[in-house]
Amino acid sequence: MTRKNAFYAQSGGVTAVINASACGMLQTARQHSQEIGKVYAGRNGIIGALTEDLIDASIETESAIAALKHTPGAAFGSCRYKLTSIREHRQQYDRLIEVFQAHDISFFFYNGGGDSQDTAHKVSEMAAELAYPMACVGIPKTMDNDLPITDCSPGFGSVAKYLAASVREVAFDVASMSRTSTKVFVLEVMGRHAGWTTAACALAAEKEGDAPHLLLLPEVLFDEARFLARVKEAVARHGHCVIAVSEGLKGPDGKFLSAQGSDAFGHALLGGVGPRIAALINDKLGTKCRWAVPDYMQRAARHAASKTDVEQAYAVGRAAVEFAVAGKSGVMPAIRRLSDAPYRWDIIEAPLSEVANQEKLMPPDFISADGFGITEAARRYLAPLIVGESFPPFRNGLPDYVKLRNESVPRKLAKDFAI
Amino acid sequence: MTRKNAFYAQSGGVTAVINASACGMLQTARQHSQEIGKVYAGRNGIIGALTEDLIDASIETESAIAALKHTPGAAFGSCRYKLTSIREHRQQYDRLIEVFQAHDISFFFYNGGGDSQDTAHKVSEMAAELAYPMACVGIPKTMDNDLPITDCSPGFGSVAKYLAASVREVAFDVASMSRTSTKVFVLEVMGRHAGWTTAACALAAEKEGDAPHLLLLPEVLFDEARFLARVKEAVARHGHCVIAVSEGLKGPDGKFLSAQGSDAFGHALLGGVGPRIAALINDKLGTKCRWAVPDYMQRAARHAASKTDVEQAYAVGRAAVEFAVAGKSGVMPAIRRLSDAPYRWDIIEAPLSEVANQEKLMPPDFISADGFGITEAARRYLAPLIVGESFPPFRNGLPDYVKLRNESVPRKLAKDFAI
User: Fold this and answer.
1) Does ipTM top 0.90?
2) E-strand spans in B205-318?
């Protein structure tokens, strides 16, 4: 078999463990030196391919690659950039083929969420249509946990663990202050349409009365009167009330409570629903309420990552390479759950055509009857995903993360490509 | 020597390590069973004494007391409640003496910040004035690091470590996204007047270009034009810009940029300056900016505590008991720095009269000439305070914190006391 080069890129909102997938992919590629020559990473996702801005990942040391496993963010840069269809924008695809040919690339690995798997899918379709020999494999990643087929998405377990730990910690604080000061606390959680991250906050509670006392899930339309009554009741019973609210909470009209324009993909950009709910409580109940919006902190918190999540992120990176060298294309490694307790899982193949652009919402039977919590079924699903600690090394009191050299591959094409 | 009972209470905004001080106090009191009988904790600070709502800490198990060392919040409840002067409100002091006498209390330990040390000071003055035999010892605590005399305040090192780690992590995220999405990130930090916590964020940076790129300290009046020019410059040079802003940032008029009413002490309640600065950047520079407000999360984050801080919090709890049994009163154990590197410290006595109601701002030579950063002197001061990890035990993926039994001591007085 002739050795061919590989392209790897990271795309979409990053997570605490997307670099663990990069680590799995790169270490496994090095083990397959019979089939894979160099690994070129796209600087900032697919944009790196379009603009021929490639990073030579082959020159990074073994120890730098190993350190990716404990480093948050996207080591090669990410992007929010979606390919249009071949019909609409043929030029983009011609350019990709041109760049791949110029650099002898026949393996394509794209690490991201639903939009990114759509990109991987389109590249695989394009390669087939143009009869360009390329193994296209997606690598799942999203803190939102909204990818279909895979039982969970790498990135989710760590944000789930961070949020549940934060809810538990904040609850100790609020309970301490509630006699004369703050009685209610609102934590705003990321997650556009699916309530997985908000639901994960409920793992902080082990028995009746434990925080969080109320969840505001994006799957349940906000009912102000019912909500305020429940807050009042919780304060009366427990002395305090901790609430986790999804940034994607929708009002009775089905519109986001807090829309702030839109991103490059036309998704509504959210933020600010936490302070809004807190203001409502202050105003309508006259109860002192504080709020937190950890925003990117939650998805970057590698210091509090889930060991299970790190292992799964690594495993999908590894499996992607194994799929590709086995001649598979148009697929994504997915996590299959074999049992809840003890938690066991393995890796299966998911067709990119069935992954792209799909959003997996929480199943209705994961949401409690009153809409303000989760069921035992949800708890059984969520619980194993946050298990295990995977602390990064610390130096001078802080997590010691790696920055790669990220040296550019010399360009081979004369013309630029505007994106 | 006759055995006398002790009163211990926690006051003011809580921290990740105030219970480590409780642990030091309680374990040391148990070692001094010749002098100290039972330890009664005030439920919710001094309010517990005024309302005769005492908790029998003596019945807690050794292991529960030991677990306080890794549990955030105030195990006995805190309060924001300030005693007025004896002249103004004699009745309060008569009531305190009445409760202390009824429960044979001759040791008074009050664990808190500047306002709480004022309470401890007033109680010690009152005891002297009424010739009631009582050793009154303060125990320092404040995430704000604004207590005088003590080189640092227990609670600060842990919030400093959490914030610096979060800044570092968020910077990896923003750097990843900056090509097509978020280029600027604003982190709002607690701390009313003193910039210690905001300054601590700078520990995330090890070399030129590292985040945070700009600090907005409460000691430096906000100059919008200069600030925006620096943000623009940072984005141009580094591709992204991470900013830490104090909730107590003041405008050119000397007024808080974001005032939201006032607390029980008449302090302005802050919050929301982060989103305000982010909106400014979005609007004036047209650069995509996101923001985070971790609020209580930062001071409750025991999972990310500084080992140095935990040890100091424990040490001041222990020293308070040793001072008291040695017959000292009207004092507070303070941390004295013996050297920066290697970091060495010991415990000295600070008179409560000199601690009460004082706020230690950052010295001018800790703030860089441009006002947007810290100096090497500040870095030398701050660096050792975040060193060392002190992870709590984890169970089912989450920190395993203790809740005490908190059983009430039977009341001995007939009448209630309205507060």
Assistant:
1) yes
2) 214-216, 241-246, 259-262, 268-270, 289-292
